[in-house]
Amino acid sequence: QVQLVESGGGLVQPGGSLRLSCAASGFTLDYYAIGWFRQAPGKEREGVSCISSSDGSTDYADSVKGRFTISRDNVKNTVYLQMNSLKPEDTAVYYCATKGHGRCGSSWKWSTVFGSWGQGTQVTVSS
């Protein structure tokens, strides 16, 4: 069974850090670009970051550049999102998803180009 499972969310104070994990089972992540998205209540799903499989290149939304870092461990079949200097506006449910052909490309912010999705993990940034 093909499955993506996110974990690592929680409640953190502004300025704090969290590391999200996206673990795959039933298939290997090696051949996929992996994107992280988030969705806050009443808002559209937003592309946060993406990492390609072909060369490990990364992309970030302007709102998280310099604060978030995406990485992948193909041995563990897992992709990570390290989130530092968190702000209340980062509060959302975070999802990971697969994109075929191994490259994020210019369309990575469009959720429709991604295939398999995880169930999401809640991140709440509040004092």
Q: How many β strands by DSSP? A: 10
Biggest pleated sheet: 6 strands, mixed
Regions with little confidence, pLDDT below 50 for 5+ residues: none
Listing every helix as H and every strand as E from the N terminus to the C terminus, the arrangement reads EEEEEEEEEE
Give, in spatial order, the strands making up the sheet with the most strands: 2-10-9-4-5-6
Secondary-structure blueprint of this entry?
Blueprint: E1 3-7, E2 10-12, E3 18-25, E4 33-39, E5 46-51, E6 58-60, E7 68-73, E8 78-83, E9 92-99, E10 121-125
Parallel strand pairs: 2-10
Antiparallel strand pairs: 1-3, 3-8, 4-5, 4-9, 5-6, 7-8, 9-10
Describe the structure.
The chain has no helices and ten strands. The model has no long low-confidence stretch (mean pLDDT 95). The strands form two sheets. Strands 2-10-9-4-5-6 form a six-stranded mixed β-sheet, with no helix packed on it. Helices cover 0% and strands 45% of the residues. The chain is globular and about 40 Å long.
Descriptive key words:
about 130 residues, mainly beta, six-stranded mixed sheet, four-stranded antiparallel sheet
Describe what is shown at a glance.
The chain has 127 residues and is mostly beta strands. The chain contains no helices and 10 strands. The strands form 2 sheets. It has a 6-stranded mixed β-sheet with strand order 2-10-9-4-5-6, with no helix packed on it. Strands 1-3-8-7 form a 4-stranded antiparallel β-sheet, with no helix packed on it.
